[in-house]
Each structure stands twice: as structure tokens, then as C-alpha cells.
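Entry 14: structure prediction run for Sensor histidine kinase YehU. Input pasted below.
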Amino acid sequence: MADKMKTNRRTIQQQIQVAIIAISILSMLILGVSIFALTTNNIVENYQQDFYYSLQTSDNIVELQLDGIIEGMRNLLLKDSYMNALSEAGEEPGSYFSSKETRILEKSVNELTLQQASVQEVLSVSLNGKLYIHSKKSDLSQYTPFYKGGEILKQVWIKEARDADGKEIILGSNALTGKNDTLSIVKYLRGSQEGSGVGYLIVNVSKNIFKMAFENRGNYKTNCFMVINENMDDPLIYFQGDDSYKEEIYKAYVSDPSVTSQTPYIFSARESFVNGWTLVSGIKASELNAQKVNVGILIAVMILLLFGIGMFVAHMIAMKIYMPLKKLERTMQSVEEGTRNITEEFDDSEIGLLGQKFKEMVNNNLVLRERLLYAKIRQREQELHLLQEQINPHFLYNALDALYCMAIVHEEDEIATMVAALSDNFKLSLNKGSNLIMVKDEIQHIRSYITIQNMRYKDRFHLKIQMDEDLMEKKILKLLLTPFVENAVYHGLETKMGDGNIWITGQVNENRIIFTIIDDGVGIDDMSKLDKGYGINNVRERIELYYGENSEVTITSEPGQGTRVKIILAENEMRI
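Run finished. Output C-alpha cells:
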């Protein structure tokens, strides 16, 4: 029998382990296939999205560099000597600037070329076609034809610059020669007097500014970048990548940039801040396809690794589930054999918690009889206490009445008044054993209490009560207000110099009864003391018990000013 049970235990452990392994393998296969499908399907989309944002960053870099150059060009407008030299040259005959004008122009534009490393040449042109070139290059022979006869004013961009009305225009190649080694920024210069033109400013900028902006190629080998302007005769403004397939990839893009399945290239493009320019990133589709193979291999390796880890974890989980079951079975068997006090300890797993509950149930059964016997004894004691309470009040009433009569006979009016107040206070406190009392009786109980206290303290305390008439006949829990009045006298007024006042108000608002008790005593420095008092906490507990959660007691106090108690009772939720 024991051997058979042992065999069954092994079978349970093995079944748990096999189930966990099977679920793990199935989950890993589904996860691996899903990841592979999602990853490979999104490789193209991810490339296009990633490099779209990369192109945006590149565009911002180019814009930042060109903005710096344009700012330098605008600063030349503020230099009167430069503007005057251009203006005077435009009014003078001849094909060349004077030596004086040349020195002024040289000095003015030299600052721009020094500040901006990418600026290669600065060309100043007067309205009558005179040309001055400040260049970092020594060979300026390519510009020789433009010195004669106002040849330069025949260029197409002259009209474009005038139409731009002083705004800079950016050309994708050299404005004069059309060569693709530089780009040109052209500006029509207006003078300060009525905005009349004084000439033209051309700044040739090295296309190395694109090289810096496009230096991030990611981890791709065949990735390339292009700047294209379809409005130009030669639309390809800039290309960065392997020049051997420059024409091929440009033609592939121009054919239809939205089709990636029919071309060997994949593109990502965005419009530049320069009007008409498009920034393009391209890559061979074969390189992205190679990534799919790498992803598949990586996923396969991860699945194998996870399978090995899953085998180990499955064994550990099976043991963790099986061992508490074995312990619980052993405990139940010992109880079956007669053990009544279980000392076995269980872990915090679900099975362990089940074993702990079973242990608590068995151990608790040992004390149930003792608790039952104790409860019966307490019941008998309470019955005896109630009987004594029914006897003792009669004795006290008779004693107080005798004292009252003796005080009257001996004409001790103060003693008679105090005894009468004490008798009323005692009768109202007992209330014939009822938990409920009319509001008017509770108020009378408070008056009796204040009367007794004034006998002690020479009429120092003044009580002022204002209640709604329909509230006086309503029943509330007895001793609901008195503890707060006692607290006001004891904590607030006794220690105060001179007289003290207590105001009690009551009103009915829809289904709520609202009482406020206010004193002008010394106040309470530490409100936490109230939580330590039995009387206040007892009232709060009774209110919550009989009037529900929508009822509350709020106490506020300010040292030197007094204390305010607000009691809200949900009359419609009263549970008596």
C-alpha cells in the first residue's frame, strides 16, 4: 500500500513537470514565431521611420549652419561702409571697383569668412554689374567672364533675388559657374534710404555641411544620403555614399520612391526647410533582408537557451508544488491517527496557506470548549450584574431623597439644590436601562451637571442652549452630548481664569441631526490627547455603531480661544 502511494506521488510530480515543460515549449515556439514575423515584417518600416527622424535631425543641423551664415550676411547690411561702397560703385562708370572700395569690401566680408568655416567665397555685386570676390581659393579664373560688361546681371538668379525682395534664396549649386562643389546663398541688398537696392551678395558654401549632418549612417553598410531639388536641371544636389551606385540609386528613387518591392533599394524621405529640397536616405534591400536571417538565428538560439532554463525552472516549480502537498498529506494522516496539536510549519504558497489553515483549525478545536465554558460563565456574571443594577438604584434613590429632606429641614438650600441635581443626573444616566433618551432629557441631564459644577466653582460656568422645538422630543443615544460638556468643563473652563461659557445648539437638516458644543476655555494644545480619552472615543464608537458611517464627530480647537465640537447624526440610518 505504501509503495503504491509512493508511486502515485512520483506520478503527480512527473505530470506537473511534463505539463510545465510542454506549456513552456509551446509558448516559446509561438512567441518565437510571432517575434520573427513581427520583426521581419517591420524591418523596412522601422528603417524608414528611424531614418525619417534621422533626416529631420540632419535637416536641423544644415539649417543651423546656414542660419549662422545668413545671419552674417544680414550683419553686412548694418555696416554703412560696405553698403556705401556698393552704392557708390553702382553709380560710377567702369567694370571694376576702385581700390578704396575694394579695401572696404575686403575688410567687411573677411569677418564672415573667418567666422564661418564652411564659407568658401563671398561675392559682392553692384547694381551696374561690378564684381568683387573674396575667396579662400587661389584660382578664380572660372569667374573671369563675369567681370565684363555686366555679364553677371544676365544670370537667372538675379531676377529671383529681386523678386525675393531682400529675402535670401538658396541655390543647390554655384550660382555663377553652376558647378556642384558648392551651394550659393543669394541676397538682394537694399539700402536704408527708402529701401532702394544697392547690389547683390552671393555666399558660396562648401557642401561639407551635409557631410557633418549625414554622418550618422547607423549600422548599415550600403546606406546613403541624398539632397534632391526637382526644380533644378541637375536635381541631385548632394550624394553621400558609395559613388559606384550613385546614378543607379538616384534613378531608382526618382522612378517611384513609394515602391520598395520592385526596386533593389528602400528609401526614407522628408521635405527640407529649404523650399523645394528633399532629403533622402536609401539602402539596398538585400542588406535589410540579411537582417531577417540574423533575427531568425538569434531567436532560435534564444529559444534553445530558454528551453534549457525552462527545464530547470519546471523541475523547481514541480518540487515547490509537490513538497507542500506531501507535507499536508503527512499532517492530515497524523491527525487521522489521533494527533490534536499540530506543530508542522508551512510556507506561504497557496498549498502552504491551506495547510496553515488546516493546522489552525485543528489547534483551535482544542480551545473551543474552553471558550464556550468561559462564555457561559461571563453570561452568568452579566445576569448577576444586571440584577444588582436593578437593586442598587432603589437604594441610591432612597438615600438621596433622605439627604434632600434633611437639607430642607435644616434649611440648607445649597445642599438641597446640589442633592436634587445629583439625583436628577443619576436618574437620567440610568434612564431605566434604555439606550435611548429624549433630547430634552439629555439637556436636563447637562443642566443638572452644570448645576453641580457651579456649586463647586461658585457659579463660574454659564450654559446657553438653543434647540429647534421639533428636536426636543426626538430620541437619541443617551449620554451623547454630556461627555463633550464634561470635557469642556474639565479641559477648557476649570483651568481658565474667571467665568466660562458653553453654548449648545441643535437643529434638524433634512434627515440629519446636527449638534454643536462650543466653549470659550483655554483650548487644547495637543489634539492627540482626545484620542487617549475613553469618554470621547466611546461616544464616537457608539455613533458609528448606531448611526452608520455617514455620521461623524468633528473637534476643532485653538489654544486660548476655546473648543468646538460638531456632531452629525444620520437619523434615517439609526440602527436601534
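Notes: The mean pLDDT is 79. Will compare against the previous run tomorrow.
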